[in-house]
Amino acid sequence: MATFHIEGGHKLAGELHPQGAKNEALEVICATLLTTEQVTISNIPEIRDVLKLIEILTELGVKVNRVQKGMYLFQADQLDMHYLQSEQFAQQATSLRGSIMIIGPLLARFGQAYIPQPGGDKIGRRRLDTHFVGLQKLGAQFNYDPDKHFYHVETEKLLGAYMLLDEASVTGTANILMAATLAEGTTTIYNAACEPYLQQLSNMLVAMGAKIDGIGSNLLRIEGVSELKGCKHTILPDMIEVGSFIGLAAMTSSEITIPNAGVNHLGIIPDSFKRLGIQLNIQGDSIHIPAQDSYEIETFIDGSIMTIADAPWPGLTPDLLSIFLVIATQAKGSVLIHQKMFESRLFFVDKLIDMGAQIILCDPHRATVIGQNKKHQLKGTTMSSPDIRAGVALLIAALSAQGESKIYNIEQIDRGYEGIDQRLNSIGAKIERVD
Ligand SMILES: CC(=O)N[C@H]1[C@@H](OP(=O)(O)OP(=O)(O)OC[C@H]2O[C@@H](n3ccc(=O)[nH]c3=O)[C@H](O)[C@@H]2O)O[C@H](CO)[C@@H](O)[C@@H]1O
Ligand SMILES: C=C(OP(=O)(O)O)C(=O)O
C-alpha cells in the first residue's frame, strides 16, 4: 500500500486543470457495448477505476485502442460472453462500482448478463434493487446466487414498460436507460436520476441513434430502436474534482484558478461553496478562487445554523460533502453537515478531530462543525484513506495543517484522482508518494 507524506502549511498558487468526470466515464464506456460499431471517447480520466473497467471490456473481447492520452476507440463487435463466468471476471468486477453498468447493455444486446456484487467505496449499504427491478420490468428474469454473490439476468427479448423507480439511483438509471434503448416499444422511467453524468450518457446514446426524451429531467421516455451505431463523445470536466480544488484553495488560503471547469454543469455546487463564505469568480468557463484568510458561513434567513445536505440532482452531490466538512473546520461560524444518502461516510471525522478540528459526530449521517476561523491551524497526523472523497478531504486537511502528515491507503485516492500528488506539487504543495 502506497503512502503520501505531506509537509503542510504551504500556500499554493496557480492553475489546476480538472480531469474528465470519473462517473461519466464509467457510464459511457459501458455504453460502447451497445453497438458493433466504433465509438471514440475523449477526455477519459486515466484513473484506477476507469482503467479497470477498460481492462474488463478488453477481456470481454472489446477492441480498445488508446489513440492518445485520454482518447480511446472502442469496438464491441466480437464479445466472449464466457468470460463473464470466469474467476478472473469475478475478481476484476468486484473491485469497482462502475462494473455494474455492463449488465444493461449486455442484456439488451445478448439477452443475458452476469455480474458479481460490485465494489466501490465502502460508504454504507449500496443496494442494487433499483437496477434489477427496472430490468425485470423490461422483461428480464433475475437470479441471485447468495453463496457466490453473483447476479444473473436473462431474457428472450426486452419490451418497453412504464416504471417508477423506488429511488433515483445514478448507476441504476444508467443501466435501465441503456437496456431500454434496444427494447421493443416505449419505456418510461419516472424518478430517474438526472446527474450531468446521465445527461451526457443520454446525449451520447442519442448520437448513437437512440430516441430519448426528457434528458436532464426525472422523467425519461425511450423509444426502443433495433440497433445503435458508433459515435464520438467527449467527457465533461469532473465536477467533484472542481469542488475538491475549490475546497483546497479555501483551506490553504491559496489563489487557484480552475480553467475549463464546465461551469454550466456544476448546478448548485458554486452557490453551496458561497454559502460557506468562499469567494468564487466565474470568468467564462474558469473559476478563480482568491486567497482568503477568512471565510464566514452564512446562517439561514431566520438566523438558524446552516445545513449542507446531499440530495439527488439537482440537489448537492453526496460526493462533495466530505470536502464541505473539511473546509468548514476552518470557517468562521458553524454548520451541520447532513449526509443523507450514505451511512458510513462521515466516520473519517475522527481523524480531523485528532488534528484539532471541532466536530461533533451526532450520528452516522450528521456532523456539526464548529469552525475555527483559521485561528487554530490543524496539526499534522498519521491517517488512512477510507474512501476516495474522505481521502481527498484528509489530503486537503494535511496540506493546510501545521507539520507533517502521512496518509496510508492512497490507492483509494488514486481510484478517482489522476496523479493528484504531481498536479498539486506543480503549484507548490509538498507531497511525496512512498511506495
Ligand atoms: C460510479 C458512480 O456513478 N457512483 C456514484 C453513484 O453511485 P450509485 O449509483 O451506486 O448510487 P445510487 O444513486 O444508487 O445511490 C447512492 C445512495 O443513495 C441512496 N439514495 C439514492 C437515491 C435516492 O433518491 N435516495 C437515496 O437515499 C441509495 O440508497 C444509496 O445508498 O451515485 C452516487 C450518488 O450520487 C455517488 O455517490 C457515486 O459516486
Ligand atoms: C462513491 C464514489 O464512487 P463509487 O460509486 O465508484 O464507489 C465517489 O466517486 O465518490
From TrEMBL:
Residue numbers annotated as active site: D121
GO molecular function: UDP-N-acetylglucosamine 1-carboxyvinyltransferase activity
Subcellular location(s) of the protein: Cytoplasm
Keyword Cell cycle carried by entry: yes
Organism: Sunxiuqinia elliptica
GO cellular component: cytoplasm
Function: Cell wall formation. Adds enolpyruvyl to UDP-N-acetylglucosamine.
CDD domains in UniProt: UdpNAET
Gene for this chain: murA
Annotated positions binding UDP-N-acetyl-alpha-D-glucosamine: R97, D319, M341
Protein name per the record: UDP-N-acetylglucosamine 1-carboxyvinyltransferase
